[in-house]
Design a protein that fits this description.
The structure is a homodimer. By secondary structure, chain A is of the alpha/beta class. Helices cover 35% and strands 19% of the residues of chain A. Chains A and B meet through helix 6, helix 9, strand 9, helix 10 and strand 13 of A and helix 6, helix 9, strand 9, helix 10 and strand 13 of B.
Chain lengths: 415, 415
Amino acid sequence: MNNEKVLRGACIIGQSGGPTAVINASAYGAIRAGLDSDVITKVYGAANGIKGVLNDKLYIMDEEDPAELKLMLNTPSSELGSCRYKIADPDVDDTDYQRILEIFKKYDVRYFFYNGGNDSMDTCNKISKYMQRVGYDCRVMGIPKTIDNDLFGTDHCPGFASAAKYIATSCMEVYKDATVYDNSQITVVEIMGRHAGWLTAAAGLATYFGAGPDLIYLPELPFDMDKFYADVEKVYATKNKVLIAVSEGIHYADGTFVSEAETSATDGFGHAQLGGLAVKLAEALKKRMGAKVRGIELSLLQRCGAHLASKVDVEEAEMAGRVAVESAVAGETDKMVAFKRVMVDGQYTCEPMLLNLSSVANFEKKVPLEWINAEGNGVTKEFIDYALPLIQGAHERPTECSLPRYAKLKKVIAK
Amino acid sequence: MNNEKVLRGACIIGQSGGPTAVINASAYGAIRAGLDSDVITKVYGAANGIKGVLNDKLYIMDEEDPAELKLMLNTPSSELGSCRYKIADPDVDDTDYQRILEIFKKYDVRYFFYNGGNDSMDTCNKISKYMQRVGYDCRVMGIPKTIDNDLFGTDHCPGFASAAKYIATSCMEVYKDATVYDNSQITVVEIMGRHAGWLTAAAGLATYFGAGPDLIYLPELPFDMDKFYADVEKVYATKNKVLIAVSEGIHYADGTFVSEAETSATDGFGHAQLGGLAVKLAEALKKRMGAKVRGIELSLLQRCGAHLASKVDVEEAEMAGRVAVESAVAGETDKMVAFKRVMVDGQYTCEPMLLNLSSVANFEKKVPLEWINAEGNGVTKEFIDYALPLIQGAHERPTECSLPRYAKLKKVIAK
């Protein structure tokens, strides 16, 4: 629905779900556009996402120093705080919605921007539908974010590219390190992405440039331990060294996550162990092959590595936030900002577009199977061509004594 | 001993021990100085350190493209290959030494440069003494390297600063990520350094800039699990979130490494588990406090993170290699290049100096106890003042499609 009526009032911007290196760039884009708008009367940041609305804890962004605010472009994680709060179905329980309406009325909130992944788009959608049902005039827009890159309908998601760049760079460095001795070495690197393998596929960028994993396993295909052993042994026989990238979400054909698998004759694990999948697989290979092994989990580092953020990602993330606000002011509601890839003279460009929230929420976009090689242990050139333009450039990164200088916000709470 | 006689002949440069982000900068400094020297007739790189000499596998560095060679300044790990070969005591078994002498004679090697840590300086020292004993004229110099920063007699070691910068930056990013939700969270980060806590102390740089660990435990002090629990509970009670940095080498008063501790009533661990120390400590805290926990091991990433190398470190590492060659050509032998910190008008500068190999080998320099706070869970301003100048600046970092562009050497093998 596009409503051309000028709607004056305050806006709230909230951040939700797991942090990324550039989610604050999106928040900045939205906050800055809100502050610059003639019809948005006040810009509030919700403390810890929708929980900040429910708890009446809103930061007045108008009170912030513009220069500090701009440092959000290079500050990782969610500066306003995040949450993993799952909002109820309003038909079952509308307590939360009544409370949100109360807060919206209290602060004359007419614009709500929510920055997150699948669940957040669902939250957006439900709030918007509720407000329409009770006749409260309010425009609701989703701003995409997820390192997992699994949002439906958009070419890619802000946050993915910077994590991909971190992963590719780290894999290159680990490759150099793990091949330094003349004795045998098997190294397993575990990468985030429980259901979609986009991030693990990014390790293939390192391979493409000659210093990356020999074998890459995505959760899009069922994992077979015997095939895995055969793959590793084949590389090992020729090179004496094997670098392997696995998604945390690899699972057997029956759906059991390999990370959660218990003792079995075939998988070579001992009983349930602490430690992640990488360590488990490395130990299984050691047991079978007697090789020197090491398991490495990229853990949180891969999603908060702002020092390696891609310029393209930072700029697109900021654009997503800005476009959400500008579109809402222009009359849009119930939309998520998405990205369309447009090749101009062979050069990558990215254009924003708007998708209906209802079409986005709760779908997961996976790596196309044709971008996985025939052996099921690597990615094709199609994936490289897809990912490479996204990781380009390094955003200006303010430092203090050569360490990152993050935004220091006052976070004045609205009364 | 300083011998002013001009000694013409070839040189060998070898790399040994664990990789660092800048060991190749030292190798480059030595190789470049060797190639530029009038008296050094040929520059060989030993494949995998002293093993390359023993196996007669030497790369002819004169054959390399100078531009590619220069990329070693930004290539992590040991480009010539490394080894962990422990050379025998020549009084017990001189087989290796006879072979080294044979190779030195075969290629008319009159200069030997070895780039490594404590063990490598010991190797240097033994080779030099042997050559003197058998009357073979050869100058031997050690080039320091170790992220552990534990070499005796030098203000600091090449490699430490870049790892320290990686650790500080990563801790800042993890701090931002791990404090994003409003619920409780305890995060344990495990950092390298089995006997000396320099690297773990570097996490204190993040704390100094307001986004780092609340608690830091070095191996210089015995670890007490009850005190640890009390420390964590105290921070947890006020902040609800705790970020903890631990050295991989923390140990109980009886010397047992915490990472290797078995079941005990006090330490809260289950029986011996896979996975590192961070995961173990995190699980123990979860069991005791019911908090959400996460263990993160910085693993190899911290020692090969060339993309975050400090400019000071790269330049000093290169200088160490160059000074070794220039000093040897000038007549020095049996020395290791070391660094002296000279403050000029309050500004840090670093001057090379030479130490006797025999005084360096096999000593370990630890973090002074007075640089650890009274509670034994953090570092003092003295450590910050020591470390901060070392991590300054970012070296120019050549890239290809926004990923690191490493040196591609031809590695032509000498016949």
